[in-house]
Amino acid sequence: MSFFGATGDLAKRKLYPSIHRLYHSGKLGDQFAVVGVGRRPWSHEDLRAVVKGICFF
Asked: Coiled-coil annotation: which residues (predicted)?
């Protein structure tokens, strides 16, 4: 999956939690990947930290 606005508010509130639910319900395969583009200069680690805080991994 690829999308624009990966660092934005809508992704944080809607997209990441939805992807998390789909994955844990078994609807996404183990090879599923997300490629996102955002305006903020975040590293992979920065984005992972934000997503972990939202989705409670």
From this structure: none
Token pair recorded at residue 8 = 């934005």
pLDDT digits over 29-43, tens only?
A: 889 998 989 999 989
Q: How far apart are CA 54 and CA 19, in angstroms?
A: 11
- Written in H, E and C, the secondary structure of the chain is CEEECCCCHHHHHHHHHHHHHHHHCCCCCCCCCCEEECCCCCCHHHHHHHHHHHHCC
Q: Would you call 38 exposed, middle or buried from its count of C-beta atoms within 10 A (0-12, 13-18, 19+)?
A: middle
Question: Is the pTM for the entire model greater than 0.90?
Answer: no
Which pair of tokens denotes residue 27? 């609807």
